[in-house]
């Protein structure tokens, strides 16, 4: 990140957190307190940030693409943010077209402690992503290779609104069973539809459908079973008019999923467990 140009002596005082030295080298006619505060945010120096405020500087209550706020977000220092909030910054009025609001950045970077601090200090529970983000930040907690159950639970505990996020569909598509279970426990719409981007890069896009459609297509038996147990409709149609059963029948080696869809009922879980043992014994044998 390109920081404001400041004299070397000033930068040295900021990076070391030396307020006395900063007092000696500060020249108000040659530099702005905003520039000093931006360096303080970038280097995570709350004493310097406090000094700026004591000199009469105040952070913006709201901002768009503020370099200072971006520095504070990337540093993820609760001490810096506490000073900013105490001096007028509104956590819910900060937006950046590249990284979104502070909570979106914390969630995507998997910084649980900072995300928790933001939520406990009034940040809205549904993050707002950047202008180029096609997914809600919560999606990053259910993608298989970066699934973060702890972060997902944190957001849900703070009443993150799940409407139109597609989180349940992505969890089913990705096979993150425990994430899907938690989302269903917290009331995600089991029949929500969305077009899922293939995060593994095998298919750029897929047809729009429910969580059960995508679990059937991917052959993820545990997700199919869980969704059926929770009442997912196996006869629901995707945009191409195919039911979940149609999709399963089109796929190779999805015979057991076809059986599940055709024989949904109270004995599914027991039968699934027995079948998995049979598969394991066949592989070992």
From TrEMBL:
<dbReference type="InterPro" id="IPR051573">
    <property type="entry name" value="Ankyrin-SOCS_box_domain"/>
</dbReference>
<comment type="similarity">
    <text>Belongs to the ankyrin SOCS box (ASB) family.</text>
</comment>
<feature type="repeat" description="ANK">
    <location>
        <begin position="207"/>
        <end position="239"/>
    </location>
</feature>
<keyword id="KW-0677">Repeat</keyword>
<dbReference type="Pfam" id="PF12796">
    <property type="entry name" value="Ank_2"/>
</dbReference>
<dbReference type="GO" id="GO:0016567">
    <property type="term" value="P:protein ubiquitination"/>
</dbReference>
<dbReference type="InterPro" id="IPR002110">
    <property type="entry name" value="Ankyrin_rpt"/>
</dbReference>
<dbReference type="GO" id="GO:0045732">
    <property type="term" value="P:positive regulation of protein catabolic process"/>
</dbReference>
<keyword id="KW-0040">ANK repeat</keyword>
<dbReference type="InterPro" id="IPR036770">
    <property type="entry name" value="Ankyrin_rpt-contain_sf"/>
</dbReference>
<protein>
    <submittedName>
        <fullName>Ankyrin</fullName>
    </submittedName>
</protein>
């Amino acid at each position: 990140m390109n920081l404001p140009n400041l004299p070397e002596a000033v930068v040295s005082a900021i990076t070391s957190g030396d307020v006395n030295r900063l007092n000696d080298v500060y020249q108000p006619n040659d530099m702005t307190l905003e520039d000093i505060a931006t360096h303080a945010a970038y280097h995570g120096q709350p004493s310097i940030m406090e000094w700026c405020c004591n000199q009469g500087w105040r952070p913006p209550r709201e901002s768009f693409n503020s370099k200072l706020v971006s520095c504070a977000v990337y540093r993820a220092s609760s001490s810096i943010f506490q000073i900013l909030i105490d001096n007028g910054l509104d956590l819910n009025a900060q937006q950046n077209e590249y990284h979104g609001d502070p909570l979106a950045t914390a969630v995507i970077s998997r910084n649980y402690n900072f995300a928790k601090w933001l939520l406990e200090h009034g940040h809205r529970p549904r993050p707002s992503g950047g202008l180029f983000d096609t997914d809600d930040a919560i999606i990053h907690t259910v993608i298989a290779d970066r699934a973060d159950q702890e972060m997902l639970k944190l957001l849900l505990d703070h009443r993150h609104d799940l409407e139109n996020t597609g989180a349940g569909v992505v969890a089913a598509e990705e096979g993150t069973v425990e994430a899907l279970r938690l989302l269903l426990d917290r009331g995600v719409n089991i029949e929500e539809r969305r077009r899922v981007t293939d995060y593994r890069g095998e298919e750029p896009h897929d047809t729009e459908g429910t969580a059960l459609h995508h679990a059937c297509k991917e052959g993820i038996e545990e997700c199919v079973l869980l969704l059926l147990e929770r009442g997912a409709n196996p006869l629901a149609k995707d945009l191409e008019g195919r039911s979940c059963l149609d999709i399963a029948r089109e796929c190779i080696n999805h015979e057991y999923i076809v059986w599940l869809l055709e024989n949904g009922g109270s004995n599914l879980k027991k039968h699934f467990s027995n079948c998995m043992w049979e598969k394991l014994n066949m592989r070992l044998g």
